[in-house]
């Protein structure tokens, strides 16, 4: 009977919504501050952000070196 | 109430009425819960991310150049993944070919021809000793990579996952032993590689699931998935439960990727926007969009610090976003057709894009102006 499967679907939906409603949340201001802090703390290690010392990037164009 | 129910079976009629009443009651309850959820989320929405980031120094101009172009696929590149060694790449194509490249030298190290076309998913095993792939065959198969270049890889193929529709994405978990898959059949699933056994299935999407990403290992056993139902769902891998769900996109979600700290994730959609969802605030906290950007986003990934979000678009470009300030910092050209896949290398020194133009490009920063 289709109504029975609709019923069990609805019951599952209500249970799922109750679960999602019970999640503990923090304020966006706090969450945003922590995202920002992570960015800033790791900025120096981010090669795509700050670059790497010339010569140490494995994907640089191969250069010829002179042996002195 | 159904007027055609025979009065000779009054019991059935009463049951039908009861059923409809319970259904209506549940419907009202679900509507109430949905509004309550929105209300609770809104209460904590005290500020925007870009407002918090106002005092952060802006980023300079970026020059990112293509350092390597990988040519060899005979048709659209659909997916790619980096090896943990930061130099090897696996890619898969519409023509059924899966290729393993050494991105430093651009040499092809392995090539496999799948029995199907549209290999939409591929992934490198954490050990670097195997790759997984699948697509229109509805399966995910694992190929151990042989050191002997002459060995026929297809002979050692292991069928791991079986879905009832196409495989859209796959990823090994922390080891070579388990694979997580997502499918056009609307589900995600966790499989044991050795036995092919289904360990857990994840039901909740109302349409095709297009993408998934595992949380960084320190954050625990969760993953996020995105689908054609416009939803991004966060799942508990052990219980199979959907623990958080986000529905703010206006079209299919093609790509999801965790922020490096694991506290948030980004998504890219056919609605031409990328969005950032914070898991602890339980809401969307940023939208990355411009009126001039009207083509869908196929794939997204973060730079190592999470400050940059790279998006591959269907208009052949890559847009680079300042995650904190919400602004675009660069637009990159080069591909001659849609960008279909994009991943930053494991150590963050470069990123690779795959395109419908049959090529893959590896880009690294050139200089800061």
UniProtKB/TrEMBL annotation, chain A:
Membrane spanning residue stretches: none
Keywords, sorted A to Z: Cell membrane, Lipoprotein, Membrane, Methylation, Prenylation, Transducer
Pfam families: G-gamma
Domain G protein gamma: 3-68
Cellular component annotations (GO), alphabetically ordered: heterotrimeric G-protein complex
Gene3D superfamilies according to UniProt: Transducin (heterotrimeric G protein), gamma chain
GO molecular function terms attached to this record: G-protein beta-subunit binding
The keyword Lipoprotein is assigned to this record: yes
Keyword Hydrolase among UniProt keywords: no
Any GO BP annotation: G protein-coupled receptor signaling pathway
Compartment(s) of residence: Cell membrane
Superkingdom as given in the UniProt entry: Eukaryota
Membrane topology of this protein: Lipid-anchor
Summary of the function given for this chain in its UniProt record: Guanine nucleotide-binding proteins (G proteins) are involved as a modulator or transducer in various transmembrane signaling systems. The beta and gamma chains are required for the GTPase activity, for replacement of GDP by GTP, and for G protein-effector interaction.
UniProt similarity note: Belongs to the G protein gamma family.
Subunit and interaction comment: G proteins are composed of 3 units; alpha, beta and gamma.
Protein name as annotated: Guanine nucleotide-binding protein subunit gamma
Lineage: Eukaryota, Metazoa, Chordata, Craniata, Vertebrata
From TrEMBL, chain B:
InterPro entries, per database record: G-protein_beta_1-5, WD40/YVTN_repeat-like_dom_sf, WD40_G-protein_beta-like, WD40_PAC1, WD40_repeat_CS, WD40_repeat_dom_sf, WD40_rpt
Top-level taxon: Eukaryota
Each WD repeat, start to end: 70-111, 160-201, 202-245, 246-287, 297-331, 332-362
Keyword Chloroplast: no
Keywords: Repeat, Transducer, WD repeat
Entry's Gene Ontology BP terms: signal transduction
Keyword Lipid biosynthesis: no
Assembly and interaction partners: May interact with RGS9; this interaction stabilizes both proteins and increases RGS9 GTPase-activating protein (GAP) activity, hence accelerating the deactivation of D(2) dopamine receptor-mediated signaling.
Protein family: Belongs to the WD repeat G protein beta family.
PANTHER family: GUANINE NUCLEOTIDE-BINDING PROTEIN BETA G PROTEIN BETA
Protein name: Guanine nucleotide binding protein (G protein), beta 5a
Lineage of producing organism: Eukaryota, Metazoa, Chordata, Craniata, Vertebrata
